[in-house]
Amino acid sequence: MLEMDYSPLLLSLKVAAISTFFVFLAGVFIAYLLAKRDFFGKSILEALFLLPLVLPPTVVGFGLLILFGKKGWIGSWLVEWFDFQIVFTWIGAVIASIVVSFPLMYQSAAAAFESLDERLSNAARTMGASEWRVFWSVVFPLAWPGLLAGLVLSFARGLGEFGATLMLAGYIPGKTDTIPMAIYFAVESGQMEKATFWVVIIIVFGFSLILWVNWWSKRNIRRFTRS
After folding, report:
1. Secondary structure letter of residue 135 according to DSSP
2. pLDDT score at 51
3. Interatomic CA distance for residues 130 and 110, integer angstroms
4. Which residues are CB-contacts of 161 (< 8 A; sequence separation ≥ 6)?
């Protein structure tokens, strides 16, 4: 009987949840700020936001090492002033997950905001509503289905992140061993039963999240068409 250490599951959920929280806030804020605004360089800026989608994860991880390594631009400052390093810590895994999952959240949020009818927001403004109230009472509720899709996809992406996490956080059992790490190093050591267990777990998680999003979206589309 295989004895399992469930720390990779707990760490993966922790990393994915924390990274998704920051990705959701940043993605919604930036997408709303840029939605329906045209300015010189916007396409370049959006291309930079989406770049982690097309880059190999190891390239993303290398870039993060340049920033957060002991001799990196940010990492050296953290070590010098706070005696704290991000490399080989679970915080490194969180940062890697934020970077690779942000494009999914931004894309979903941008599409949701750009598809909204601006006349609804303008109507609220003419009635004296502040921009803050317009966002929370009009824009956010109408954009919520798209934002939720981005939220779930970002969580799933953070849960399955491997390449950039390996580069920045490394593999330290009990400390930085997320599920993808546990799978890779279990295969490397010939522990196929252990690797299979974690593969099944992450497939079930990913499939359940996507299935739920599809069900929720179709349910709300039906509700919208009936009303």
Report:
1. I
2. 93
3. 22
4. 15, 57, 93, 96, 97, 100, 101, 178, 180
Please state the pTM of the whole predicted model: 0.88
Q: Which tokens sit at 211?
A: 């299935």
CA separation for the pair 215, 114 (Å, rounded): 23
Helices (H), 35-89: 42-54, 57-68, 75-82
CA dist 92 and 67 (Å) reads: 11
d(CA 123, CA 35): 18
Q: Both tokens of residue 107?
A: 């894309």
Distance CA 104, CA 50 (A): 8
Q: How far is CA 217 from the centre of its chain?
A: 20
Mean pLDDT of all residues in 180-193: 91
Rounded to whole angstroms, the Cα distance separating 106 from 199 reads 28
With a CB cutoff of 8 Å and minimum separation 6, the contacts of 157 are 97, 100, 101, 104
C-alpha to C-alpha distances, 151 to 18, 80, 107, 188, 212, nearest whole angstrom: 12, 35, 11, 33, 12
Place of tokens 């921009």: 131
In this predicted model, what pLDDT tens digit does every residue of 116-156 receive, in sequence order?
888 888 888 888 888 888 888 889 988 988 898 899 989 99
